[in-house]
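User: Assemble these into one structure.

Assistant: Restating your components, then the assembled model:
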Amino acid sequence: MIDFTPSEETRMIVKGLRSFIEKEVKPIEEKHREYFESEHKRLNEDGSLKPEVKAAIDKVRMRSGELGYYGMHMPADVGGGGIDRVGMFFAHREMARHGLGLNMYTLAGPEGPTQMLLNLNDAQRKKFLAPLVKGEITTCFGLTEPEAGSDIKNLTTKAEKQGDSFILNGMKTFITNAAHADFVQVFAVTDSKLYKESGYQGVTTFIIEKDRPGFKVGKINRSIIDDGGQAELIFENCKVPKENVIGQEGMGFYVAMSWIGVGRLNIASMCVGMAEYLLEKSVEYAQQRTTFGKPISKYQHVRGMLADIATELYAAEHMVLNCAWRMDQGEQVVKESSFVKYFCTNMLFRAADKAVQIHGGMGVMKELPIERIFRFARVLRIVEGTDEIQKETIARSLGL
Amino acid sequence: MKVLVCVKRVPDTGGGFKLTSDGQRVDTTNMDFTISPHEECAVEEAIRIIEKHGGSSTVLTLGPEQAQEQLREALAKSVNGAILLEAPDYESWDPAATAQAIAEAAKPGGYDILLFGNECADACNYQVGLRVAHWLDIPCVTGIKALEIQGNKAIAKREVKDGWEVYEVSLPAAFTVKEGLNSPRHPSLRGIMGAKKIPIEKKKLNKREPQLVRKMLRKPQEGRGQIEILGQGVEAVPKVVAKLRELGVI
């Protein structure tokens, strides 16, 4: 029988995380408030994060690692907590229900340990995975190229085998945490013929340390959220030993696929938490703001918008829980993870649009966090597979 | 050193709460439960005493079976053991009956220090810690914000206007603590996972007749904040100072 009631252990984890965010993380954010209210103050001229902001983010991540929350989704044998997907839904929801601030760095995202890294061998696990699970170092996932986003058959980054090493040439773009990663995970074509024929094989994943000669971080990608996180990775005759290959040579995409479904579920869970935050703020504002002699919460249009947010939120929550539970049962959730990613990111976007509308003029002002979440919500419909890619996956499941 | 810390399972009211239609209690439908804030500080103090002086700490509560959740919260923060005094009808237990049951359970433990919250977050009777000390015939200092153990005595400080009252008591002794005594730690994931393996000692309690009967709870009228603009820029300063004096802030 499906039962989504969180276990006592999950409730304790959520409460622990809440206490950590409220008592430790939010005071740090408050100290750096001016940076979080405005991208202009947060970033240097080249779009990179100012050192004090980076230090605050690092502090939150490392402290969360110390408490064991940061990498709790990873198995216990690599230093994680072995928390299942349903448990992680509640954790991600809790993380995001405190708004778009430093709280968003308390649980690992693409800069942290992912299931994909379980393909590392023992030596690699010791060197790269163990400190990553503790939040001591960070990484990034280098797949996207200017001409190859979700269309992964167009990769141009190549790795040519020379003895016991590979020589990498090419570039990646829009890579989250590229500017700060201690090591990057890079996908490169190692067998052009096989890649051209199969479209999936012939690509290998490599670990590249940040100080390896031939590798550099390119320009920071400026975006509508300008969080200083995305950048280019550039490889020019970068020599990498075969010990840095993740998993089996030529099977890079199979390595990557082990992670993509989980990433979609994580985003969907965060959308639920952030929509809860918006709903709470919007209800509060609607009750306080008075026009023509009564609070705007008494007007049918405003009440309707709030009811819409609450209804979609309820649907989204149960949808993610169902998918997470299926994943925990070992089911393949290809179409289901597309359902939740597509629905929840759009649900958040609609909720953010309504929240802006309810807040009126204040909704688009920098003083309130609403407009920033609106921009963030728009981005979520693109990353980890656009709306169109998700719908394509769903359509394929219908035999189309 | 043996430390007993007593906690109570109370509704986590957050921003607001409703009362049940009979006005007897807070409506806890869809509500989380937690440990009272003062008691969180008591738990933290128990852990710190053991970390500094060695020995063991035990957390105790009187309540329903679900109160094990609050005991495990304390265990997750590294309290060593837990006792549940099971009283399904706990809502009808008054401070006198509660204190007597706790004292009876604590007596065989031979505890050196008993810690309580100054008052619980729901009933706020301010009585249980004091009554337990009376039952056990040990000294009690209430409302403390500092505690130092020196051999077989303790120095406890209570904050008063413009200073501190300092008490020296011999152990065993009981203390009721207030928020500000320390900053309670967050449970680590390892602590949470470890807590579920620690057995909880359970004792069933018989119903006792309360001496104190609650007639009715009434929610106070919610007041609306008032905004008063005193002026602009430097010229407003004397008015701000006068207003602060009027409010008794300075």
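Chain A touches chain B at residues 8-9, 11-13, 15-16, 19-20, 23-24, 66-69, 72, 81 (CB under 8 Å).
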